[in-house]
Specification:
72 residues; three-stranded antiparallel β-sheet; elongated
């Protein structure tokens, strides 16, 4: 999940796994796999950075959880 801001400054938390594509028209428009579209204040590069950050956090947590049960 990533935090974004709609054009009217209302916060939005989006499931980044549903992003199909992002375009700049000049506003940033996010199209989801279910057909929904969101226009947000963030740039394409900011959104990509947030998705990467979220996925890194999930991956690190999964690695940590996997090591939690190991005996050293």
């Amino acid at each position: 999940m990533i935090h974004l801001t709609r054009l009217n400054r209302v916060p939005l938390v989006l499931n980044s796994d549903l992003i199909e594509h992002i375009e700049t028209t000049p506003d940033t428009v996010i199209s989801l796999t279910n057909g929904q579209k969101f226009v947000v204040l963030e740039t394409v590069d900011e959104i990509i950075g947030r998705v990467i950050g979220f996925r890194r956090a999930v991956h690190c947590y999964e690695n940590w959880r996997g090591q939690e049960g190991s005996i050293e």
